[in-house]
Amino acid sequence: MTRTLLQTEGLTVRFGGHVAVDAVSCAFEAGELTAIVGPNGAGKTTYFNLISGQIPASAGTVTLDGQDITRQSVAQRCKAGLGRAFQLTNLFPALSVLENVRLVIQAHAHQGVNLWSTAISHTELTEAAEAVLERVRLADQAHAVVSELSHGNQRKLEVAMLIALDPKVYMFDEPTAGMSVDEAPVVLDLIAELKDQRDRTVLLVEHKMDVIRTLADRIIVLHNGALAADGDPETVMASDVVQEAYMGKELEDV
Q: What is the pTM of this model?
């Protein structure tokens, strides 16, 4: 029996006279990875921003595990179980890799963010952070200052921080952007592991079709802010709407 963890109903945002996301209704199930695709300017990241609370909706609703979160702040949505990794890394550059992850675990445990308490009180937090870093293959960089990391390792750290948050819904916006061919598989393997937990939902905005083919259980296509296609990868990727969008042809308004 499937369980809907996230749902948008008629989700819309207008900027002046421009409708950037146009009445998008989708339900996302536990154990499912949905890739959100479409040409540049289709509304993919704006749709993400509406779900995660970076921008307020003009109309429609966002529901997380049965709770209406449409009017909640980013912090409230995070606390409710919505986790997002950003296309541009959102880290604490002056702190170490370990401290970044430990802060997230500490906040998630509702212990505040006091870095200056005694080392003994942080033993369990540190061990938990080290376990996450081991999982993302960053254990050898634990004491490195984040600003000195390569772009690829910063992206892996961002995934580590999201894992440390342990959300119900994981949201990734082009997680391998700017990563080398050697670095990208680590992040993609981690995303696959999250999906395999079966009690989490994963949303992925991605342009690379090979990544989508490997990971996605489902694809939704946005065009001009509207939902243009929704279904299994084989069917959607063979559809005219995707072929036209990714071949750069003119796509009629939905």
A: 0.85
Mean pLDDT of the chain: 86
Q: List, in order, residues 6 or more apart from 74 with CB less than 8 Å away.
A: 52, 53, 54
**What are the residue ranges spanned by the domains of the chain?**
1-81+168-254, 90-166
Fold of 1-81+168-254: Rossmann fold (3.40.50)
Strands, sheet with 218-223, edge to edge from the N-terminal-most edge strand:
82-85, 169-173, 201-205, 33-37, 218-223, 226-231
Render pLDDT for 75-134 as a digit per residue (tens, 0 to 9): 899 889 999 876 445 788 899 999 999 988 888 776 455 555 544 467 888 899 999 999
